[in-house]
Give the backbone structure.
Amino acid sequence: MQPPEVADLYGAAGDAEVLVVGAGIGGLACAVALSRAGFDVRVTEQAEELREIGAGLQLAPNAVKALRHWGLEEAVAAVSVVSQSVEYFDLETGEHLFSSVLGLAAAARYGAPVHQMHRADLLGILADALPAGTVTLGRRATDFDVRDSGVTVRFADGGTMQTQLLVGADGLRSPIRQKLARPEPPRFTGTVGWRGLLTRERAEALGFGHACYCYLGRGRSIVLYWLRSGEVLNVIGFVPVDEIQRESWTESGDVDSFRRSFATAHPRVRRLVGSVESAFITGVYDREPLDVWTDRRVTLLGDAAHPVAPYLAQGAGQAIEDAAVLSAALSAQRGPTDSRSWTGAAASAALTHYERTRRPRTTKLQAVARATESFWHERDPEQIHARNGRFRGITRIDPLGETVWSWLFDYNPVTQSYDPSASRSAGITSSREDHRLARAGSQQAMEAWRGAFTPGDYAAGWKGLRRAYERMLTTVCSPAPGVCTEHVDAGGVPALWVRPQGRHPANPVVVLYLHGGGYIGGAAAAGIDLAARLADAVNGQALAVDYRLAPESPYPSALDDAMCALRWLVERTEHETKIILAGDSAGGALAACAALRARDEELPPVAGVYAMSPLADLSLGSPSIDEREGTDAAVSRDLLTDMSACYLQGRDPQDPYASPAFGEFRGTPPLLVHAAANEALVNDATRLVERVVATGGNATLRLYDDEVHAFQLFRFSPDAAEALAEFGRFAHSWLNRTAPAG
């Protein structure tokens, strides 16, 4: 039998303007978007019928906005359930940890609701929206050749097809990706998902309403949400693969094994699992983010480009986003609407624009999804305790969960193409790619912050951020030659004596240095350079404190350790010794908190406090956090929320010992505050100074233009030397005082 020719499938004209390989949700969404925009689009699919593996999916507002634009939201609403909330529980104890309100509140806040539906239903809606003859089944694309004039696609049956533009939407094991990008296999995460359904009657008898439920346990989790207009409850149980007790596993599974994996769960969960009569198993896979997924006239979409672990419920949503952005990019480059001829330059420009728009966002999402899997499936009891505490902290700081979801849900793929002036960063870094500072040294410091965190660091959660922050400091901010250090036990707290070259240990001025890192990162050893320069500014020495970090050691652990070190200094030093508290970012706030507590404990007064870019309000109430969104490379509201939640874990964020912006400062030592005028925490700095003065204390503020957060960390920053010189003048003006100001 001769292989079918192009004319047999597509008519005598032969060429397709755009060929989409793969008729899953991403491929069909791409075809819908392009056909709605007037493109001649064809889809080929290797399967003999349209089908989707798995029962359910969730469509968040970001995806629903695209479906609405294509006129499909009403059809989706007819077969879906609008989730009212996402509820998180501890799998073993049943403790309720956190709730994100959705429903009408999400629709009002993000522009669309969250729909939960069966995959087959969405696939049918997309297929029905296409012109007849768009999709050809039973043809597996195996290879392609791209030239300046077009693309030749080859199929397993020996046939070929010519197209102007090729979109590989052929899934996790995409042959198009194999040719276009790195050839490595998908990464198996070591986790498999049990997938089953419960009838509405059984689910309601167990007390499950119209919400999404996430039970998080030791190395496992269960996710529940509704399908088919609320008639069935989708059940997904994630477990380690080594608990599947047979030599190999297929799509069908023994539910007794499923039940054994959740034998230690809360009774309500055990009853739920016991009610599941049949289930099938799928492995959880992803891939490393690609550096490039476009070559001239060929690009990738959906799982072929950026397969993502399912823990953010964004796999289908990101493919839909891809489709909307690709359609917009092609429309912007297209010539007359009746022309199907693409020059090589126009094709490359459109597809490159699409990739550059999408890749930062999908890279971040892949990393965050990996971090979420690790976070959900912690095994260590200490880390589980820390995880649950972080949820309590978010409940207190962000009860609607906006900072958890807004970076995903706010996005509108129809209108938000690659726009350097957009207010929100799309990728790993918290600053926009186009944002630059005027001076070379300031820009160098911004690039240091931008490059501090990689996708791999984000994928490792707070542990990865901790590792990355210390790596950045030790690499970019290494101490000058001749700085001497000595490990010491400072009242039960590890610390480092830091002495500039030639400085005698008996010098009468000591800077008690508290490092930054948002309470979840940083270390005394990583802050040696700044500690040495602080010591040099006052002609003294520094004691850098290794206080305990969150989330393992939440509030007030950091403050307790700072106070232990301060008491130790007071007890061991001569009467003539003067102590100055200093810190950057969280350490700057911690220095102010230590001054408050030292006064309240009636310790001998310190000579002064120096706070550099202090994180002074853990309730995150400063307007500049949102006003500087996309321009501060060091911090964002999302990151600050995570840091605050990890540290406070449900404690009052307006406690003055955690947030000095709410303190009473009468009787405390004088305070010097420095910050960058253009950083996200500038209002934390100004509010702290205003609060000190309003409550009877003494405070001085200076803001530096064209600088980064905690710019004093970087000795090459243009104003670092001047700032530390001012600190030295400030300190010496108070060193001879024996009583605190005010």
About this structure: Residues 344-376 form the longest helix (33 residues). Confidence is low (pLDDT under 50) at residues 1-14, 246-250, 738-742. The chain is about 35% helix and 20% strand.
